[in-house]
Design brief:
Layout lengths: L9 E3 L6 E3 L12 H12 L11 H4 L14
Antiparallel strand pairs: 1-2
Length: 74
């Protein structure tokens, strides 16, 4: 009889880097535990994960044209 061996893929937990099985049996995948998954969720919720970028001047504009701004001289 031949036994089929299924190769289990191990991945690094994004939070603690511990090896974790990436299988349907691991309900926290790709994390190693519920704790690591909640730590990651907390980072997202507190905006701990951000992509650095230069601010765009349009993000600071209120959308008024110079004529519509009450404090400018026409």
């Amino acid at each position: 009889m031949s036994q089929s061996k299924t190769k289990i893929t191990l991945v690094d937990c994004p939070t603690c880097a511990k090896k974790s099985p990436f299988t349907p049996d691991n309900k926290w995948r790709p994390f190693c535990s519920q704790r690591c998954k909640l730590i990651d969720l907390g980072e997202w919720a507190s905006e701990g994960y951000q992509i650095p970028a230069e601010p765009d001047i349009e993000e600071f504009s209120i959308g008024d044209t110079p004529e519509e701004m009450p404090y400018t001289k026409h």
